[in-house]
Write a structure and sequence with these properties.
CATH superfamily of the largest domain: Glycosyl hydrolase domain, family 43
CATH architecture of the largest domain: 5 Propeller
Radius of gyration: 31 Å
Helix content: under 10%
Number of strands: 36
Mean pLDDT: 89
Number of domains: 3
Distance between the termini: 67 Å
């Protein structure tokens, strides 16, 4: 006979896992209730009403704050730029047992804040004989247009000791600053010519304050003065660092070091905290990561979903991009490296030589991009992942002409930041996408709560015959005409069309040929953007066909909500009828105010 014991009771009795024969179905169902992705929730939860696998056992769900999360798991609202935690409680019922028991489990759900960004900025240097900082812009994070008419935006000879800037990394920090770190090096002097880094900070990505950290001077008398490489520095915000005034948060700078005195015989990763005004490094370099062989180009990101730090790096000499992870950024109050574990195999989706890995998240999506420089073949390769573990190929982005990026950073920026950058650094060939912040639906803790997503504006472009494209939602054409429908955004995700005479399509552009009166009517297009938010546009086409004249049909409301709204609107077009509280019809509005209006 099988032994059915509640899992909680087993642990309380000290029973080891291997001694458990089987968990009672009810308790197994209770253990299996936790929804996925609740540490950083982007999309609606699919909450079961019955745990059919085990029972079935009915489930009732209850949210502690329906302004943000409904009892049905739908996201109703978000903060802008920060997460909000809601408690979701599940009650599991065992209606078949003699005890008719019910048990509760509660889960903390972190609703991902709406990210107020529209575009992506790529900061990079273009070539070994052009070690300056350049910018490029993108609407999708994959395809970029160089800024400033293809000219540099930061001149290396104005900020660096070696007159060369390589490997720029830009961090948007919670304190309102952008922090950039660069390798201070001129490759024409050789790969062992690097002696330090350049620190830069800015409020607007346009005007930068700069300083240099020259290791031979800063660490005179110590082995760190003997560096031949201080390669590819990056920054990450350590929210746990305690400042002198008691506030928390400081940029942590990490980089690869190599010395010529034998104390650091191959490239190892070290770290320092930046000083308060980001003009220098504090203390001596602290060992951060060592795989036993040369390691360069480390890039660290934090994933709130699994609450882990993921560090990507190049296996210098062996080739390939690998990854380790850690539960904390540092250990022992920021004085030592964390425990890195779970080293991955090669993550690049190519057999080409690669370096300069960069990782960033797509705007308002739980989707990460790992990019790397295929430096021997003239292109960047972009891959994507939802978990930072499994990556799939997206595209190769050719680097040529004015766009030849080498080892840089991509970060999301707001529409206002994009406009300001384009004003200073002209980019005539780029049409920036603008993602509006959703409408406000309430206030919580004195902060605005907005809708769950922001629909993308559909621009209804149409073309008749050989005429040019024009923006319109109302079109009259002759019988036999050809009409093309090509709404924007052109780089959209999911399109869906419905129209007269059974017309359906999932393409953005559609060509309607030899039109007659049967094709007259409204063509409704629905666009679903990257965040799953839908927008709708109706385009009316009337064909001048005497045999099949067009008759305007009244709009049809779909669904109960539309029907309710129509009834409400029609009622308001009539004189009100008054009833007393017993249901008796009155001749006119009563003076005492105790009435019902219909």
């Amino acid at each position: 006979m099988k032994k059915f014991v509640p899992l909680v009771a087993l642990f309380a009795l000290g029973v080891q896992a291997q001694e458990v024969v089987e968990i009672a179905p009810f308790w197994a169902a209770l253990d299996d209730l936790e929804p996925a992705g609740i540490n950083d929730l982007y999309n609606d939860l699919n909450l079961p009403d019955t745990m059919k696998k085990y029972g079935p056992f009915p489930v009732k769900w209850e949210s502690s704050d329906t302004l943000f999360l409904g009892h049905d798991g739908r996201i109703n609202g978000r903060f802008v730029g920060e997460n909000h935690e809601v408690t979701l409680t599940a009650t599991l019922y065992d209606n078949e047992s003699t005890t008719k028991r019910a048990e509760k489990r509660s889960f903390k759900v972190s609703i991902h804040g709406f990210e107020p960004y529209s575009n992506y900025l790529f900061a990079y240097f273009p070539a070994n004989d052009n070690e300056n900082i350049y910018y490029a812009l993108s609407n999708d994070g994959y395809n970029f247009t160089p800024m400033n008419n293809g000219k540099r935006v930061v001149a290396a000879d104005t900020v660096s000791i070696k007159k060369g800037l390589r490997d720029p990394h830009v961090l948007r920090a919670p304190d309102g600053w952008f922090y950039m770190v660069n390798t201070d090096m001129k490759s024409a002097e050789g790969w062992a010519s690097n002696r330090g880094m350049v620190l830069m900070k800015s409020r607007d990505l346009i005007n930068w304050k700069h300083s240099t950290v020259h290791f031979p001077d800063k660490y005179k008398g110590k082995n760190f003065a003997n560096v031949t490489r201080v390669w590819a520095p990056e920054t990450i915000w350590d929210a746990n660092y305690v400042n002198k005034d008691g506030s928390k948060g400081r940029p942590l700078v990490y980089y690869s070091l190599l010395t010529d005195d034998g104390t650091i015989p191959y490239d190892k990763v070290y770290f320092n905290y930046a000083n308060e005004d980001f003009t220098d490094l504090e203390g001596d370099p602290t060992h951060f990561f060592d795989r036993g062989k040369s390691t360069i180009d480390m890039d660290i990101v934090y994933n709130p979903v699994d609450k882990l730090y993921h560090a990507f790096y190049k296996n210098e000499g062996d080739g390939g991009i690998c990854k380790v992870q850690a539960q904390t950024l540092t250990s022992e109050n920021g004085t030592k490296a964390p425990t890195w574990y779970k080293r991955s195999g090669a993550l690049q989706q190519t057999t080409e030589a690669v370096e300069g890995a960069g990782v960033f998240k797509l705007i308002n999506q739980n989707s990460w991009v790992l990019m790397y420089d295929c430096y021997m073949n003239g292109h960047y390769q972009f891959t994507s992942s939802s978990d930072l573990e499994n990556f799939k190929f997206v595209q190769d982005t050719k680097t040529s002409g004015a766009f030849t990026p080498r080892h840089g950073t991509i970060l999301p920026i707001t529409a206002q930041e994009t406009a300001a950058l384009m004003k200073v650094f002209p980019t005539p060939d780029f049409e920036p996408k603008v993602i509006e912040i959703p409408d406000s639906i309430g206030v919580c803790d004195g902060k605005k709560v907005v809708g769950p997503c922001s629909p993308t504006k559909i621009i209804p472009y149409v073309k008749v015959g050989d005429d040019g494209w024009k923006e319109t939602t109302d079109l009259k054409v002759a019988k036999g005409a050809t009409v093309q429908l090509g709404p924007h955004p052109w780089d959209g995700k999911i399109w869906s069309w419905e129209g007269p005479d059974g017309f359906k399509s999932s393409a953005r552009e559609n060509t309607l040929k030899n039109l007659d009166g049967s094709k007259s009517g409204y063509y409704t297009v629905t666009y679903t953007n990257e965040t799953g938010c839908k927008s709708v546009k109706k385009i009316r086409i009337v064909v001048d066909d005497p045999d099949k004249p067009y008759v305007e049909q009244p709009p049809v409301s779909i669904g109960n909500r539309g029907m309710r709204e129509n009834r409400k609107d029609s009622r308001l077009n009539h004189n009100p009828v008054y009833f007393d509280l017993l249901g008796n019809r009155l001749k006119s509005k009563p003076k005492n105010g105790m009435f019902v209006v219909r």
